[in-house]
Design a protein that fits this description.
By secondary structure, this protein is mainly alpha-helical. Helices cover 62% and strands 3% of the residues. A hairpin with an 8-residue loop joins strand 5 and strand 6. The longest helix has 50 residues. The relative contact order is 0.11.
Length: 583
């Protein structure tokens, strides 16, 4: 049966229009991607990969990530599959960040398509499927996964989770689908730790699709019999997922050590605290999206209001018994149940994220991307069984507000990319000055701009790029080779200039009090006992601002930090909203 036969003529045009409109908006919003630099860890990760000029050396770097932690000794992350994908892209495209993003975009589009397929499996509605595809494609969490190359870790994990669920939805009819679901789960586990929710999601999906009404008898006997039949029917699928999950957890302990098995380093005593913080996750998500600008707040308000109106309309239909026991009503209940379970699992899994990863008011949006299919499906499924005119009005409102949210959430990434390039140029004369006078300069740079990870974890990489020690990342029209990059430790620009991000300020104070440790770290015997000049780089300005110098040895940690705050408040106030230097 063809698409046109399955979809009534009154819906065919709406489905096509929604899919086309979402695709056009998506392409428009990401038009910047091929001319933008890399962000944060991108700057160091790609340089490390590009420093392996032969395939044997390149493969050795990849192999290390399969048999050990992602970032080396002490890391709590094991994500070999997306790292291998990034390594292969670097081997093929070099340091061209624009071309490296092609894989991220492909993962995103397939993920959105998978959300549509999963929605159709749950509701048998083409319109709900298309709307789920559109809302997943346009969700404002995705720019972090697409523009930021290391967001590929989440891209692979999310696509694999959705693929595992789609396969699981067919598992009752075929052993091959059950195996495919387990294999997709394995891919998810090898991509990111957020995949730990895949096994309970598979159980929830199969429970959602199971026909619990086929059992008759007393309530207790009926439920026990139904549960027994359900477990017997799904035993192969559940056993495969249990084995894969156990194997993954054992592998983490073996590769990372028992104390490092949890990516956030949490102990069992913190479980209750994590659960108690779970309710904050949706609030943190809404706050981060709405913090982009006033327009985003308005668009988010419209989107949530449209979902609320659709939910109220469904409640009225049920109250007035207009829906009866029809197919759309049953599909609606199944889909909403599954969405709520999914969102609850994500909230519990991210319960420690809000207090652990928050830097000031910044909570990485990628941590919530696992819930995108549930949010998209929940928003779309509420239109089931509604009158055509009301359906179209709600769909149009949701599509318009989602489009506006994506437009506004992608623009800060373009601005942050400009700031990264500006910072690189601004550091060049500072590095040259201190190479000439033998001093040591410290520059405070933007860690986050809004919710965009600008130079977080890249404070050494940006200096090395500016000083010619590391290949420049995304210089349109140029592809640097290893031969023309300075690699002598004695000429490492980090030995003469340090870039400091706000949240690391407390650690820098302790480091600057230990001259011997600083000399060993920077590999300079003639290094001054303390930095000789402090600077800050105002976002949006082309040059750094000199702040003078003050001693970490002579001042307490509190006084040293207060002096930074006073100087930065005057010259670079945009940097005061993150981490340790927050107002």
């Amino acid at each position: 049966m063809r698409f046109g036969q399955r979809v009534g003529s009154e819906y065919r045009f709406t489905c096509i229009a929604v899919a086309l409109a979402a695709s056009v908006v998506w392409l428009w919003c990401y038009r910047y991607a091929f001319t933008m630099t890399g962000f944060a860890e991108d700057l160091g990760v790609v340089a490390q990969l590009q420093s392996s000029p032969t395939w044997a050396e390149h493969w050795a770097v990849i192999k290390e990530r399969w048999i050990g932690p992602l970032w080396g000794q002490g890391s709590t992350m094991w994500r070999p599959l997306p790292y291998s994908s990034l390594a292969l892209d670097v081997w093929w495209w070099g340091s061209d960040a624009g071309m490296l993003r092609l894989t991220n975009f492909a993962l995103h589009w397939l993920f959105a398509a998978g959300c549509g397929i999963l929605a159709h499996r749950l509701t048998q509605s083409a319109l709900v499927a298309v709307c789920s595809f559109a809302f997943a494609l346009l969700n404002p969490l995705q720019p972090e996964l697409n523009f930021w190359l290391v967001g590929r870790f989440d891209g692979w994990a999310n696509l694999a989770i959705v693929s595992s669920l789609i396969s699981a939805s067919y598992a009752q009819a075929s052993l091959r689908w059950a195996i495919a679901s387990a294999v997709c789960a394995l891919v998810a586990y090898a991509s990111k730790e957020s995949a730990v929710i895949v096994a309970p999601l598979v159980v929830a999906l199969r429970a959602t699709l199971y026909d619990w009404s086929s059992n008759r008898g007393s309530f207790v006997r009926t439920r026990l019999s139904a549960a027994h039949n359900f477990m017997r029917q799904e035993k192969v699928l559940f056993a495969l997922h249990a084995l894969i999950c156990i194997a993954y957890l054992v592998a983490r302990v073996k590769l990372l050590g028992a104390s490092k098995a949890d990516v956030l380093g949490r102990s069992s005593s913190e479980v209750l605290a994590i659960l108690s913080a779970s309710w904050q996750v949706p609030l943190a998500l809404i706050r981060n999206i709405a913090s982009i600008d006033t327009t985003s707040k308005a668009a988010l308000t419209v989107f949530i209001s449209a979902v609320a109106i659709a939910a109220l309309a469904q409640c009225w239909r049920r109250y007035s018994r207009q829906s009866g026991g029809n197919v759309s009503s049953a599909a609606l209940k199944r889909a909403i149940f599954f969405c709520l379970v999914w969102i609850a699992l994500v909230c519990v899994a991210n319960g420690a994220v809000v207090p652990t990863l928050a830097l000031g008011d910044v909570v990485p949006l990628r941590t919530f991307s696992t819930a995108v299919p549930a949010i998209a499906l929940f928003s779309a499924v509420l239109i089931l069984g509604m009158p055509v005119r009301l359906q179209r009005l709600i769909v149009f409102t949701l599509l318009l507000s989602a489009s506006l949210l994506l437009v506004r959430s992608t623009r800060p990434w373009h601005d942050a990319a400009i700031e990264i390039s500006s910072t690189e140029r601004a550091l060049v004369p500072i590095i040259a000055k201190h190479r000439a006078d033998g001093g040591l300069g410290v520059v405070l740079v933007a860690e986050y701009l809004g919710s965009v990870p600008t130079l977080v974890n890249a404070n050494a990489s940006i200096v090395r790029i500016a000083g010619g020690f590391q290949p420049p990342f995304m210089k349109p029209g140029t592809q640097p080779t290893i031969d023309n990059i300075v690699t002598s430790p004695a000429s490492d620009p980090v030995s003469y200039t340090l870039a400091m991000t706000p949240s690391a300020m407390e650690a820098w104070w302790g480091l600057f009090r230990s001259a011997d440790m600083l000399k060993r770290m920077l590999k300079r015997d003639d290094l001054p006992n303390e930095p000789t000049a402090f600077y800050c780089k105002p976002p949006g300005q082309p040059a750094v601002v000199a702040l003078g110098a003050w001693s970490a040895t002579a001042l307490s940690q509190r006084d040293w930090g207060n002096r930074w705050r006073e100087e930065v408040q005057t010259h670079c106030p945009q940097l005061l909203n993150v981490g340790a230097i927050r107002r």
